[in-house]
Design brief:
about 425 residues, alpha+beta, OB fold (Dihydrolipoamide Acetyltransferase, E2P), 5-stranded antiparallel sheet, elongated
Length: about 425
Amino acid sequence: MKLSTTIAFAAFIATAQAFAPVSTGTTSRTQLKSSAVLEAPVEEEKVVKIQPTRFDRFKKSYMGVQKVVSEDDIEALSFSYDDFQDAVSNTEYSFERDSIVKGSCIEYQPKGAFVDIGAKASAYLPEAEAALIQPSGSEINDLVALNEEFDFQIISEEDENGQLLVSIRRIQYRSAWDTILQMQSDDAILDAEVVSVNRGGAICLVEGLRAFLPGSHLAGKMATDDIIGQILPLKFLEVNQENNKLVVSNRKAVVETQMANLSRGDLVEGSVQALKPYGAFIEVGGMSGLLHISQISYDRIEDLEQVLQPGMPVKCMIIDHDKVNGRIALSTKTLEPNPGDMLRDSQKVFDMAEESAEKYHTKMEEERKARESAARDIVLGLGDSLDGLGYDLDGGDSPSSGGASSDPLADVSDSLDSLLS
């Protein structure tokens, strides 16, 4: 039985080889398969090798040498895991809009800077929000320094990348208004720079905010380009935070400063600012005073331009002043050595102004004393008349005889008390 089976299998193989294609020196796929089935042993399954990812390669290249921390090192640390947990639980993270946080700029950008405020992503500070006062031509690196701590206000919600917009300007804006309101409450005088002029006046920077200075409130100046860059003393006329409105006055500040030390009879120096038919305006220490035509000379003036010219330096005496409105009235005729000297030789009047003013003050003092003496004599005369009147009313009793008092008003208070009671 086994022999017949073997013979049959050999016959099958011979038949298969008879119908197989002629060999050309290469082995067909069918022959390989059959030989692999019949002759080659079964190969073991190959192990697939996992290739490292790009992240693994970067990690291997840039992580550096990692230090192995032993348990002894951990026990030697003064900051334990419990301490870390307490620190995390006690730390508040407030990154809501309008919140004030501390941070520092870590990198400049063409129109802003990245800011580290402790959030999951760096915040962005636009250049327009970097400072309240930004000089012309300044850039972001001129306004904020790197790695310096500032207060920032969050002005946006997180975007899709978790980034926030922050501002320094808005914090400075609120602080400036607080300072201005306090100065207004104190009625303080402040110094501010003129940055531009317009048809109505000038624009000044007050604590970084733009304030309007009306041309009518400039003391001894005109609203021209010549005053741009000048530092002027100012006082507030109107402060309205809701409408972001500031109005200031230079004249009010100058008047308060200058007129605090001025009084009638003072000799001042100034220059002719303008001529009018009724007199001349004289600039005195930043103020404008009126030299009326009737106060220029004791003689009649037919042509004012023959006596004074614009820009001419003069010396005048203050004869009246209004400290509230900042007005002063001036005179030169009180300085004339002789009536009419202003028309004949005005320079002589100015050269002798101090001497003439001294004589004028002496004369005024003598007249004042004379008036006081005359008034005292009148009062004493009235007293003698009242004494006689009181003697007659008492029925002829002599004051020295112990009768009624010689003072007719002595019992007035007693009479008023009796009427009121």
